[in-house]
Amino acid sequence: MSLLIVCPGRDPENWIETIRKKDSAIECYAYPEDHQKEDVEFALTWNHPRGIFK
After folding, report:
1. Structure confidence at residue 6 (pLDDT)
2. Are the C-beta atoms of 8 and 31 separated by less than 8 Å?
């Protein structure tokens, strides 16, 4: 499973660390980290920039 975390103006590292402790098989990406759209299965967002999911 893979997860994109989008929360502009906030540091997602604590969330990523906690998710990886629960399940190290979950691949986490932090926006705007470079990643392939095809690699993302789920997104956790807060106040995401308009149009990023097109």
Report:
1. 97
2. yes
The answer to whether the CB of 4 falls within 8 A of the CB of 37 is no
Q: Which residues pair with 9 in a beta bridge?
A: none
pLDDT digit string, tens, across residues 12-30: 999 999 999 999 999 999 9
Q: Taking Cα atoms as reference points, which of 11, 31, 8, 16 lies closest to residue 40?
A: 31
Question: 45 and 21 in contact (C-beta within 8 Å)?
Answer: no
Residue-level pLDDT at 32: 93
Q: What's the chain's Rg over C-alpha atoms?
A: 11
Tokens of 14: 């604590």
